[in-house]
Each structure stands twice: as C-alpha cells, then as structure tokens.
Amino acid sequence: MNASRLWRVARTEWRHQVRRPLFWVLLVLLVAVVWGVSSGNVTIDAGSTEVGGKKAWVTSAFAVAQTVLLLTFMLFMFFVSVGAGMSVISDDEARVQPLLHTTPLTSAEYVWGKFAGVLGAYVLALAWMMGLLVFFHHVVPAGADAEFRGPFALGNYVSAAVWFGLPLIVFMAGAAFATGERTRRAVPVYFLPVGLFFLCVFFLWDWSPGWLDPRVNRFLMALDPGGFRWLTEEWIKVDRGVDFYNTRPVGLDALFVTSRFVLMALGLGAVAWSERHFRARSRARCARRPRARGESSTRRRSRSRCRTRRRRCPRCAWACGRRASGRGCGR
C-alpha cells in the first residue's frame, strides 16, 4: 500500500464529502439543535434537569455525555450512513472503477482512502458540534438559564466526544461503507440507520423489566452502540444527588470501554471485509476479458481446422459436425 496514493484518494474523497449539500445540511442542523438544547427551546427527554429539588448543570460531565450521545445517534447516524454507503455506489454509477485498472492504484488504497476521507469529514462535523456546545454553553450569555450552567471543564467535552461520539461514527461509517460496496444499491444503505434506530430506541434503550437478569442487562449494555443503556442503568437510573452529577466525571468501567473498542473494531473490520470483496471482484472482472478473447480465438482456430478437414475426407466432416453440435468429436 502506497501512502502517497492513499493520501490522494482520502484527500479527494474528503473534499467531495465536505462540498456535498448533505454535509452542510448536517452542519446547519447542528447549529439549530445545539442552540435549542442550550437555550431550552429544544429539549431531550433523557432524565430530569432537577435532582433532589436542585438544578443540575447542563455543562456537567453527565449532561454533556447525554447530549453528545443523543445528538450523535439521532443526527449523525443517517448522514454518516448515506455519506459512507453511497461513496462506492456513486463511483460505480459514474463508471469510475473501470478506469482504476489503468492506474497503479490498488484495491486497498482505493477502499481505505475512500473510507478515510468519509470518516475525516464526519469527524470534522463532530468537532464542529463540540465547538457549538462549548460556544452556546459558556460564551453566549445565559440570562435566565444561568443557574443551569456550571464552570467550563474541557475534559467533560473531550471525554464525551471520544467515548460516546467517535465510536458510533466509526462503526456506522464502516458498516454503511461495507453495505454499499457489497450490495451496490442505495436501499440497504438507507435502511441500515433506520433499522438500527428502531432496534435501539424500542428495545436496547427501553426494555428493562424488573425481573431481567443482571447478566442479561449487562450483555444488552455491551450491545448498545450508543452507550445510552449503560449510562442510564449505571449512573442515572438511581438518583445520586445533584452535587454528584454536577461535580463528578463519568466513571468508565471495563464493560463500557471494551464495548467501545469492539464497536470501532467492527466498523474497521467491515471496511477490511469490503476491501477483500472489492479486490476479488476487480480481479474477476479483469480476468473475464482475456478469457473471453482466448475462447473466441480458440473457436476460430477450431473452425478453421474443421473446414480444412471437411475438404479432405467425409469422416472428418462428420466428426466436426458432431463437435459443432456439442456432442463431442473423436479427433
């Protein structure tokens, strides 16, 4: 794998992604939603802002983690899926891939370069969202909402982006990229975030009966790609007091950390799997053309020999007739 060619593909794809109207719609939508969350015009039903009769800060580590988790899941999932899944499909529709065989570009450089470009674009959008949260929480005058705002703590925002935002983006980008490369159809790419949304909202996040075995509950926490079930069950479901939520960081256990790394590994593994499939498909396409030319030349030589034999003896003419009809020839 040549690093220079990989960088060129990634840079080209990144430029294409950040110029798409889809990407700019996401950025504008993030401005509106983050402004609404910070000002109270848009609320997320993920726990009360009052614990024990006191005001809980929207700038605390737990509140920022909840906000990043839900915004990443609700907004980024669809946009990332379309951007990554349609990447290879668009090139296929534009007849770009046959031109790749005339260049020294390898399948690994093409696939990983495309994925890196898409991922880089939406990681930039994640950084944009975190900057908006800092701006609306700590720069814009609070006014009547001052009691909901605490002091600025950079670690609250960095930790939320690293553990709750980035793993989901990597997973969705890899899964959607593999789906688009494998199927070469847009419908499965669009269905992927919708299906994952309904699975999480109506099962992984909401289903928690009292008789559920704790081991099954922790297993469902590990399966949740957003991390919402873990955050709710471990820290928010049981009231720990407003001072705890306002001042303490989100404690990460081995289950949650492992699930985040496994989630990113699944996304990268999906890209590696799609690279192998793309390479095998490219080789089959290249090998099909010489084989077809070889078969046509063989048939021409066979017909020439048969014409010569038919002129020489009746037996050869009969044998060549059997060959032409597909019943075999004794010679």
The SSE order reads: HHEEHHHHHHHHHH
Cα radius of gyration in angstroms: 29 Å
Number of strands: 2
Distance between the termini: 50 Å
**Secondary structure: helix percent:** over 70%
Strand content: under 5%
Q: Tell me about the biggest sheet?
A: 2 strands, antiparallel
Instruction: List segments where confidence is low: pLDDT < 50 over at least 5 consecutive residues.
Output: 41-47, 291-296, 317-331
Judging from the principal axes of the Cα atoms, what is the shape?
globular
Can you put this structure into words, describing what you see?
- This protein has 331 residues and is mostly helical.
- It has 12 helices and 2 strands.
- The protein has helices at residues 3-19, 21-39, 61-93, 97-100, 107-139, 154-183, 186-204, 214-223, 228-236, 242-247, 254-312, 314-324, and strands at residues 50-51, 54-55.
- The longest helix is centred in the last third of the chain and has 59 residues, at 254-312.
Give me the secondary-structure topology.
Layout: H1 3-19, H2 21-39, E1 50-51, E2 54-55, H3 61-93, H4 97-100, H5 107-139, H6 154-183, H7 186-204, H8 214-223, H9 228-236, H10 242-247, H11 254-312, H12 314-324
Antiparallel strand pairs: 1-2
Helix pairs in contact: 1-5, 2-3, 2-5, 3-5, 3-6, 3-7, 5-6, 5-11, 6-7, 6-11, 8-11, 11-12
Considering the chains and any ligands shown, give keywords for the structure.
2 strands, single chain, mainly alpha, 331 residues, 76% helix
Short description:
The protein has 331 residues and is an all-alpha fold. 76% of the residues lie in helices and 1% in strands.
